[in-house]
Design a protein that fits this description.
The complex is a heterodimer. Chain A is about 20% helix and about 35% strand. Chain A contains two helices and nine strands; from the N terminus they run H-H-E-E-E-E-E-E-E-E-E. In chain A, the strands form two sheets. A five-stranded mixed sheet of chain A has the order 3-1-9-5-7, with no helix packed on it. Chain A is α+β, with helices and mostly antiparallel strands. By secondary structure, chain B is mainly alpha-helical. In chain B, about 65% of the residues lie in helices and about 0% in strands. In chain B, helix 8 (about 250-285) crosses helix 13 (about 390-420). Classes of the chains: A alpha+beta, B mainly alpha. The interface between A and B is large, with 49 and 51 residues. The complex binds protoporphyrin IX containing FE (HEM) and copper (II) ion (CU).
């Protein structure tokens, strides 16, 4: 049998396997890249939204009024009660405010919860600054414990014109099995 | 020189006269141990046909449930398992393996190679695929049932899958590994084993389309593998890639999935583009119009397919700039696609047309795929997509591009090359019946889904408000008509394997390309001595 003239396949196969490995790695690289993307587009990364800020409060813009709405949800923590004390507030950009949520652990056992904030509209997210928030750390609750949770915030004076209403929403997750929160 | 001139110049009988050596072993052992590209191609094609029928039965169960409002046949949980597994079976079990089977059979014949470059890996990747589907389909029988979160496997829903979860993920890993191996094999074969004189720009367009498809596969299948691996670790090791409680984000999964998912739809359609580019010239008796433009069009579609993924996710919320970018990049794909449609049409212009079954399917492809392309353009418009997303309009869109698109392309290929594979002509009457019934019913089945979607009927729901009843009934009737028509196809293939009028080497009136220079049926070994092209 006259074998056809063959080029060596090994090198090419090696390069293609390398490309495959590169693509697999790229899939995982999308995880940090996603944060970078959120950062440059100004949506705010997940970490930024849960971090304390120290904005300038010296000169509030008293001429402008923005409505801040509060919502809450308990996606998977069982029979918890979790709700904002007031449904909405009218605020002046540049001034510090305080809002309260109440949480009641009805799960029948000790639970550690983590609140994850999100702000709509997305483009307002980076102008909503929290100086203090229960969402910065996991919150431990005894069985049946009920307690108030505090958030102090400032709406930045640079909030683009045209936004006169934004919604702060917290989802409260049971992180007991995540061993101490942030994974 | 154009590929069609190759025929006349090749020394046609390179394959003939290879006496008795290297006969295949008899019986099952032949299929378990073969490394012959034609055997493996056949196995892929038979496997794909079986999956098409199994996935089809699931689809008919879905259409039976949707025949009227209310819950009649299946409970909602099982309904969701059906839609999920139907899609996974059709995408990864029917369409992709069919194109791999065609690649195995035809690429060596088209480029004048004796076999695929990596024959043992070829066999291995087939059996990996086989076991992947045994595993996936067996999930119907484990506690909790099959995965039911949709073929897109979005968390957190998919994390509620029962015992099937690790099985489904593992099955996806196996399918992915199998198709990556197939892709590596195609690239190495095309790069290293072309007959002397077969330069890349003389290569037939089917082989071209597969070369580019293979690179797409290598680029995106591993990303999907990474995504489902993250699901696995979220499920078992409490990582938080997609778990908001631990600092993750479920939307990230959608990005990872669609970074794979959009190129994946082109992985399914590009080989069909290649097939149609072979068939239309043959039955127009004219070389393809704008051969090089066709190659560059496929390449630019492949490139653009990487930068449009978020058009599947407009409704999760993204900045205006993102919406604009993904709308415009998506619409840009219509340009090279338009070039292809234009060139196919122009190939027929003043051609001497005849309407054998492969041509009928190719023409139906041309019309109906284009309808799917247009609904895609509508979906690319953000404000419109806010209304259409997750409705039957999307279901209609992707079925138009996938069924009368990818599947018709594959059927056209079978009708085109079947005489070359079996050595027999098939029954033209059955083929024409099959074509007309299929082409009519596919529209009865999917066209009304546009109306349902525009009127607001959601997808992935087993029940619906009564005002949607009429069009659902029409669609279900179309579904059953379509499904039953496929039995004609199976019957025709079986008969053609068993016997029929002997096919000549050229089979068709105006054959062009090396595959038509070997006798029909193509001998077990072909091009052991490279054909000479001048
Ligand atoms: C001009 C070409 C195309 C355009 C502009 C386009 C656009 C789109 C858009 C915007 C969506 C998202 C709709 C939504 O979920 O709201 C979509 C979905 C889809 N498209 Fe296309 N498309 C095109 C071609 C194709 C092709 C060629 C295929 C496959 C062969 C395909 C398969 C799909 C599938 C499977 C989905 C739905 C995925 C799912 O949600 O399950 N499309 N298309
Ligand atoms: Cu897409």
């Amino acid at each position: 049998m006259a074998a056809p003239p063959r080029k060596s396949n090994g090198g090419l196969v090696g390069r293609l396997v390398l490309m495959t490995a590169g693509s697999f790695a790229f899939g995982f690289a999308l995880v940090p890249l996603y944060d970078v993307f959120c950062d440059v587009t100004g949506i705010g990364t997940r970490a930024q939204l849960s971090r304390a800020a120290a904005p300038d409060t010296s000169a509030p813009d008293m001429s402008r009024v923005v409505t801040v709405e509060f919502t809450a949800s308990v996606p998977d923590s069982g029979p918890w009660e979790f709700a904002p004390a007031v449904a909405s507030m009218e605020v002046h950009p540049g001034r510090l405010y305080e809002a309260r949520y109440t949480a009641h652990n009805l799960a029948g056992r000790d639970t550690t919860g983590q609140a994850v904030p999100s702000i709509t509209p997305l483009r307002a997210a980076q102008y909503f600054r929290k100086t203090e928030c229960f969402c910065f750390t996991p919150q431990h609750f005894e069985r049946d414990e009920q307690r108030d949770l505090l958030v102090r915030f400032i709406v930045d004076r640079d909030l683009p014109p045209g936004i006169d209403r934004l919604t702060l929403s917290y989802a409260f997750y049971d992180v007991t099995r995540l061993a101490g929160g942030k994974g | 020189m154009r590929p069609d001139e190759v025929t006349n110049m090749a020394h046609g009988n390179a394959a003939a006269g290879h006496g008795d050596h290297h006969r295949p072993p008899k019986g099952v052992m032949r299929w378990l141990t073969t490394t012959n590209h034609k055997d493996i191609g056949t196995m892929y094609l038979v496997f794909s046909l079986a999956m098409f029928l199994i996935g089809g039965v699931m689809a008919l169960l879905i259409r039976a449930e949707l025949f009227q409002p209310g819950l009649q046949l299946v409970d909602p949980g099982f309904y969701n398992q059906l839609t999920t597994v139907h899609a996974l079976v059709m995408v990864f079990g029917a369409v992709m393996p069919a194109t791999v089977g065609l690649a195995n059979w035809m690429i060596p014949l088209q480029i004048g190679a004796a076999d695929m470059a990596l024959p043992r890996m070829n066999l291995f990747s087939f059996w990996l695929l086989f076991f992947a589907f045994v595993l996936l389909i067996s999930t119907f029988f484990v506690p909790g049932g099959a995965p039911a979160a949709g073929w897109t496997l979005y968390p957190p829903l998919v994390l509620q899958t029962g015992n099937a979860f690790p099985m489904a993920i593992f099955a996806i890993h196996l399918m992915g590994a199998s198709s990556i191996m197939g892709a590596i094999n195609v690239i190495v074969t095309i790069v290293n084993m072309r007959a002397p004189g077969m330069t890349l720009l003389k290569m037939p367009l089917f082989s071209w389309s597969w070369l580019i498809t293979a690179y797409l596969l290598i680029a995106v299948m591993p990303v999907f593998a990474g995504g489902v691996t993250m699901l696995l670790t979220d499920y078992y090791f409490h990582t938080s890639f997609f778990n908001a409680a631990g600092g993750g984000d479920p939307v990230l999964f959608q990005h990872v999935f669609w970074f794979f998912g959009h190129p994946e739809v082109y992985i399914m359609i590009l080989p069909a583009f290649g097939i149609v580019s072979e068939i239309i010239p043959t039955f127009s008796r004219k070389p393809i119009f704008g051969y090089e433009a066709m190659v560059y069009a496929i390449a630019s579609i492949a490139f653009l397919s990487f930068i449009v993924w978020a058009h599947h996710m407009f409704t999760v919320g993204m900045p205006l700039a993102g919406q604009l970018f993904f709308t415009l990049s998506t619409m840009l794909i219509a340009v090279p696609t338009g070039v292809k449609v234009f060139n196919w049409t122009t190939t027929m212009w003043r051609g001497s047309l005849s309407f054998e079954p492969p041509m009928l399917f190719a023409l139906a492809f041309l019309f109906l795929f284009t309808i799917g392309g247009f609904s895609g353009l509508m979906l690319a418009i953000v404000p419109a997509d806010f209304q259409y997303h997750d409705t039957y309009f999307v279901v209609a869109h992707f079925h138009y591009v996938l069924v009368p698109g990818a599947v018709f392309g594959i059927m056209a290929a079978v009708y085109y090359w079947l005489p070359k594979w079996t050595g027999h002509m098939y029954d033209m009457n059955i083929a024409k019946w099959h074509f007309w019934l299929t082409a009519i019913f596919v529209n009865v089945l999917f066209f009304p889904q546009h109306f349902l979607g525009l009127a607001g009927m959601q997808r992935r729901i087993p029940d619906y408000p009564t005002q949607f009843t009429d069009w659902n009934m029409v669609s279900s009737i179309g579904g059953f008509g379509f499904g039953l028509s496929q039995l004609l196809f199976v019957w025709l293939i079986i008969r053609c394997v068993k016997g029929g009028q002997r096919a000549t080497a050229g089979v068709w009136d105006w054959p062009h390309g090396l595959e038509w220079t070997v006798p029909s049926p193509a001998p077990y070994h072909t091009f052991e001595k490279s054909p000479e092209l001048h």
